[in-house]
Amino acid sequence: MRRAIAVACLGLCLCFALLKVRSTGADDIAERAHKLHFSSIVLDTHDDTTQRFFSKDFDLGKRNPDGHIDIPRMREGGMNAIFFSIWIDGRIMGPPAVQKALDQIDAVHENVHKFSKDLVFCRTAEEVRRAHAQGKIAALIGVEGGHMIGNDIRALRMYGDLGVRYMTLSHFYNDEWADSSTDKPVHNGLTDFGKDIVREMNRQGIMVDISHVSDKTFYDALEVSKAPLIASHSSCRALCNHVRDMSDDMIKALAAKGGVIQINYEKSFIDQAYKDASEKLSGGVVAQFDQFKKVCGDDQECFGRKMAEQEKQATAEGKLPHVSWERIIEHIDHAVKLAGADHVGLGSDFDGATMPDGMEDCSKLPKITEALLRKGYSEDDIRKILGGNTLRVMEQVERVSREIQSQR
Amino acid sequence: MFKTILSGVLCLSAGAFLVATVTGDDLGTRAHTLHFSAIVVDTHDDTTQRFLDGRFDLGPRNASGSIDIPRMKEGGLSAIFFSIWMPSKVTGPEAVKRALVQIDAVREQIRKHPKDLVLATTNKEIRDAHAQGKIAALMGVEGGHMLGGDLAVLRTYAALGVRYMTLTHSGNVEWADSSTDAPAHNGLAEFGKDVVREMNRLGMIVDISHVSDKTFYDALGVSRAPVFASHSSCRATCDAPRNMTDEMIKALAAKGGVIQINFHVGFLSQEFRNAEKANPEIEKAIAAEVQRRCGGQESCQLIVGDEVTREYVAKGLLPRVDYTKIIEHIDHAVKVSGVDHVGLGSDFDGANMPYGMEDATGLPKITEALLRKGYAEGDIRKILGENTLRVMAEVERVSRELNSAPLK
Asked: CA–CA distance from A191 to each of A171, A198, A227, B304 (Å)?
């Protein structure tokens, strides 16, 4: 009897154990995803947090109730390499644009200095890897718009010396030498001077970023550049027909030269229904931008706040549809199917765009890893998308720079 | 046989004669050995202006001006501060951008001549360069008007390698009075004091050449590190507001600083200065001639100004000043403050050079003259460069201290 009970117990135990194994099996992916995500270099090529450095209320070291980026949330989201964007209104040009850009570059350096326990400034892929090995977040800089060089190749070189590692050739407006995707073409793409700028970027080891530029500018830059290019924050036009996104042809051409499309999470760029509703409501991203500018002037904190408020209200009123974070996965998957897993990465646009539901801030990034794993992506491919691809482009850009400089 | 003996005697006597003259010139040999083994630092050269015209190159020996690589080597110049300069009427973002362009021009020259030049930003890097047989290239910003009233810009200059800033040039800035302008701030304004403090933090040497006496004393009071006068001579010997009084030299020395003697004839020779004052039409005629030959081109003006002044000296219209005047100023400053507080700040390519010091090849004469005057070899090494290296080391130490202090 006792024995019988004991056997029954054993049987029950075995049953439980089996059951447990099976339920762990179901969540095995979550655990694998967690391990994978937090052992990977997760590199985001576009964050507008720099603007917040000028606000007295913002502290990168503390968890903030608003916005998308700070050190605690980067830690929570396993984000360990970030490109802080240097950005000013594309209509500011000449020397004032240069000085404002310098102010922002300085603000990034000062914040890295202030939080040197968590952040380390990086210029190369090797430095990013070293930062990761030390458990630090790699801070990098990208200049978002050619208007900030004051039409002077020498200012570009100084940005390179100050640690800038990519430059977007234009922002919303054409600059003196490149057409933007959201302005009327005047240069038929890249002017001769614009081509010289691309060549100088190759020489300096600064990545050429073709987000924001017109399709013609993209193809011109692709042809001139001796090193692979990136789109630091653009998504797929096939899924959401926005000029800021890339057509399938463009993605393929970018990949053929070794480049990477860094998927942007902005709702207007990833969801057609949202984009259509948003344009109906406020006339598109540039018009929306100008509308906030009227209210906020140059106060970027106000910009972010107004944008979030308006967006929240319009969504609550049903004027704007909800967009799930899973759209990001769709864009990644589309680009991977087109160009292969070697040519897709992450360029969130955190602190500079409206985020889809479920990707409220950078603490949600592990979801991307898990979703890709569930979709059947290999761990290696996921590591590439999370950051490996961008590091590869950086290494190639560095190599081309060394080659050009040694030819002298 | 006799012939042989005779020729032997002749040879011997010729030999004895040779020995005698060599003994007479033993000092010459000692001076040569001393000069070419010492680290010779020049804290002020305006050659940067010449880089901007796109034709001048530091590589070949140039027929005009005072500085290029062959002549620096011939003169044993081991470290040179290239001055970043524009007239003080240029202010705001325009001045910032132009300064950036000049910093780029210096860095491009260094990139272009990697066998001969190396960018140095610390005293150790100067010593390393010297040990490798390379010329250390450094940068100083000559005038606070290039800050655009913006500490971020100051930090940017430091990040790009600038190691001193002269608080003003010929005109007052918004926060400091110049020695050659009507006082407007009673020395250093509050923001000016912040500039000095930030320079201390950044490890930039505070340069008090060009500033008003009151600005000098204010800066000396605020700075936690020694300050220097990058190119000023002694007012007791030549009464120019650009020069320093004995009292100022003593105060500078008491805080560990260095007066770098300027070779400009108008600052060396009272006689020259008197002649200029007595004949203002000569100065006007020289200015007109310079304008005629150069137009508005500043690099040309600086070089041609020296040439035209020489023509007036040759005609007997202005007194001839010899390089020995430099020795008089060095000796005066040494007598006032001791040998630890005097150095060289030629103002080559930016001023009118005395006879015998037309260019950098004349520098060994200074070593020989001091040796002949009875200066100890160790003391001469200090004047040639070691004093400046000591100030740099001290400025670097203060910077490290300030940066390791807990952040506010």
From this structure: 16, 11, 19, 39
